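Whiteboard transcription, Tuesday session. T.W. wrote the C-alpha cells on the left side:
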C-alpha cells in the first residue's frame, strides 16, 4: 500500500489516477474527509490529518504501508481566509517534511518519494526555494530509501499556471508580463511527471537519487505566454512591467490580501531560469515528454 500526502492537489489528483490505473492500493492523508470523499469513491482509503500535525501523520501510517509519497507544498504563503488556516513555507515545506519523515522512521517505512522544486538549492534567493531545499536536506539525512523529484513549472488540466494566464487573456487583450519575459523554463506536463513517479517505488535504480524533471522544450516566459494566447485563439499585446513596479504592487497585495495573486517571493523566482540541467524524464525514465503547445491545446 502507498500512503500519499497532498492527494487532493493538482499533482496529487493526477498521481492517484495513475497509481490506481497500475492497481496500487492507496491511503490518502486529507484534512477534510468529506471534501475528499471523491477519493474514496475511486477506491482510496482516507485518513484525517495534516502534515503540520505530527501525531496525525504517524497515526495514518498503519500496518501495510510500504511506500510514502509526500506531495504537499504551497506556492504562496497565506494569512488564512474563511475556513483556511494560515500557511507558511516553513510550516509546510520544512516542518511538514520532517513530520512525514519521522513518521516513516517510527513505523518502519523505508521507501519514500518526495516532490521538491527545480531551483531548490543552498543560498537560493526566494524563501520558496530555500525551504524546499531545507525539506530536501531532511530527507537526505533521514536514512530512508528516498527519491526526490525537482520539476520545473507543471502544466495540465486545472493547473494554476496556464489557466491563470488564459483567464487574464480572455478578459483583456493587454497582458502584463512581469519583467522582460526572457527568463527560461522547461514546462513539464503533469501526466509525464506522475508517470515517472509511478515508475519509481519498485525501481532500485531510483533509490537515493534526486531527479531534475523538465518538459520537451525550453521556453522563455514570453514564448509561454504567446503559446497560451495561440491555444485559446486570442491576439494579445504584451506589456512588460518593470520589476520595481511589480515588487511595489506585490507588497501592497501582501499587506492587504489573505491570498495575494502575486508576491515578492514569486517575482524573485521569475528573475531566474528554471531549466533542468540533466532531464531525468528523458534520461533515466526514458519517457517522451508532451510538448507545451500540444499539451495545453488539449485542455485550454
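and on the right, the sequence the group agreed on:
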Amino acid at each position: 500500500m502507498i500512503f500519499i500526502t497532498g492527494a487532493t492537489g493538482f499533482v496529487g489528483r493526477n498521481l492517484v489516477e495513475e497509481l490506481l490505473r497500475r492497481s496500487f492500493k492507496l491511503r490518502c492523508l486529507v484534512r477534510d474527509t468529506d471534501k475528499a470523499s471523491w477519493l474514496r469513491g475511486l477506491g482510496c482509503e482516507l485518513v484525517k490529518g495534516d502534515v503540520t500535525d505530527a501525531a496525525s501523520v504517524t497515526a495514518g501510517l498503519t500496518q501495510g504501508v510500504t511506500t510514502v509519497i509526500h506531495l504537499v507544498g504551497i506556492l504562496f504563503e497565506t494569512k488564512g481566509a474563511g475556513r483556511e488556516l494560515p500557511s507558511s513555507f516553513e510550516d509546510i515545506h520544512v516542518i511538514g517534511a520532517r513530520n512525514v519523515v519521522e513518521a516513516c522512521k517510527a513505523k518502519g517505512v523505508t521507501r519514500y518519494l518526495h516532490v521538491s522544486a527545480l531551483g531548490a538549492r543552498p543560498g537560493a534567493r526566494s524563501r520558496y526555494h530555500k525551504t524546499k531545499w531545507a525539506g530536501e536536506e531532511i530527507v537526505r539525512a533521514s536514512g530512508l530509501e528516498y527519491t526526490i523529484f525537482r520539476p520545473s513549472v507543471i502544466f495540465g488540466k486545472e493547473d494554476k499556471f496556464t489557466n491563470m494566464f488564459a483567464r487574464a487573456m480572455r478578459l483583456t487583450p493587454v497582458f502584463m508580463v512581469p519583467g522582460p519575459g526572457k527568463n527560461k523554463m522547461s514546462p513539464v506536463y503533469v501526466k509525464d511527471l506522475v508517470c515517472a513517479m509511478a515508475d519509481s517505488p519498485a525501481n532500485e535504480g531510483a533509490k537515493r537519487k534526486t531527479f531534475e524533471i523538465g518538459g520537451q522544450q525550453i521556453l522563455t516566459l514570453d514564448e509561454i505566454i504567446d503559446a497560451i494566447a495561440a491555444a485559446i485563439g486570442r491576439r494579445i499585446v504584451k506589456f512588460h512591467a518593470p520589476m520595481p513596479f511589480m515588487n511595489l504592487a506585490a507588497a501592497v497585495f501582501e499587506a492587504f490580501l489573505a491570498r495575494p495573486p502575486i508576491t515578492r517571493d514569486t517575482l524573485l523566482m521569475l528573475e531566474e531560469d528554471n531549466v533542468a540541467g540533466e532531464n531525468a524524464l528523458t534520461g533515466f525514465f526514458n519517457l517522451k515528454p508532451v510538448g507545451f503547445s500540444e499539451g495545453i491545446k488539449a485542455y485550454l
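Someone added at the bottom: Residues 2-155+187-215+275-290 form a domain with the Rossmann fold fold (CATH 3.40.50.720).
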